[in-house]
Automatic annotation (TrEMBL):
It comes from the Bacteria. This is ABC transporter permease. It comes from Pseudomonas syringae pv. pisi str. 1704B.
Amino acid sequence: MLRRLLLIIPTLLGILIINFVIIQAAPGGPVEQMIAKIEGFDGATSRIAGGGAG
């Protein structure tokens, strides 16, 4: 029982580290993504419509 409780600590720490790395690796922040969607500069939409470089 105590062993399982002690194993929770490194497991949760590992999950937190993995989540942090994934969030940091994502391009742009959540605010920039929301602004881009509001202004209509979503990457996939602009490529389909032909209104963007790239």
